[in-house]
Write a structure and sequence with these properties.
The protein is mainly α. Helices cover 68% and strands 0% of the residues.
Length: 233
């Protein structure tokens, strides 16, 4: 029995601290957010995805679907933060956790403070800027943990995608503000804006899925549980 405990401790250090229910909730909530975004594209075709941003769906007939998307997005971030909180013990990890919680606050806040609300800009700053910072800090910290090392490349790729698309969206927004709007030749802020939501959710789902895999690895019976090896005759 003691050998069994030692084997488990050696193969999965501190994976017991991961909350699998919270990780699963994070994945489910992110999936709801993505499905809500996809449904808005079909329910409100009057909002051209080329140059109309996601928040503008609040001015359509299905604003409640947008609110659902934002709430689910926020829950996904909060659930992930709860699921992996014990894995982030370094200063950078705790800072990343703080940004992830703040991002969830901004995402959920956008459900009540739509594009016509004075606080929508604050919600956007927290959600849109907070998650890429959290993604990079958390991805780097987790990648340095031995138990997470096999997923390091995947974490970094998905984490980097969140700030890359943010830069693309900001660049497109600056071009549009500069005067090249729908009446001109370049107005593509809508696509990066939607892709930002997608990639943020993809990173969240990736980390949550890796956390579940770490907590429940593929079934392998340790030698200590198999009993003594038969002696060679």
């Amino acid at each position: 029995m003691s050998a069994n405990r030692e084997t488990r401790r050696a193969t999965a250090p501190e994976d017991h601290a991961i909350s699998v229910p919270a990780a699963r909730l994070s994945i489910a909530a992110a999936a709801v957010a993505l499905l809500s975004l996809a449904s808005l594209h079909m329910l409100s075709p009057e909002f051209d995805p080329t140059w109309r941003v996601v928040s503008e769906y609040a001015n359509g007939q299905y604003g409640w679907v947008l609110s659902l998307m934002f709430v689910a997005w926020g829950i996904s971030s909060w659930a992930l933060a709860f699921a992996i909180r014990a894995q982030l013990k370094t200063t950078a990890g705790k800072l990343g956790l703080g940004f992830l919680v703040a991002a969830g606050l901004g995402q959920a806040m956008a459900s009540a403070c739509d594009i016509n609300h004075p606080l929508h800009g604050v919600a956007g700053m927290l959600g849109v800027l907070g998650l890429p910072i959290a993604a990079m800090l958390i991805s780097v910290v987790l990648g340095r943990i031995q138990a997470w090392s096999s997923a390091k490349t995947l974490l970094l790729w998905t984490g980097n995608s969140t700030w890359v698309i943010l830069i693309v969206m900001i660049a497109a927004l600056m071009v549009m503000i500069a005067g090249r709007t729908r009446a001109g030749t370049i107005a593509l802020v809508g696509y990066p804006n939607r892709l930002l939501v997608v990639l943020d959710c993809v990173w969240t789902m990736t980390v949550a899925w890796q956390a579940i895999k770490l907590r429940h690895p593929a079934t392998q019976v340790p030698q200590a549980m198999r009993g003594p090896r038969p002696e060679l005759q």
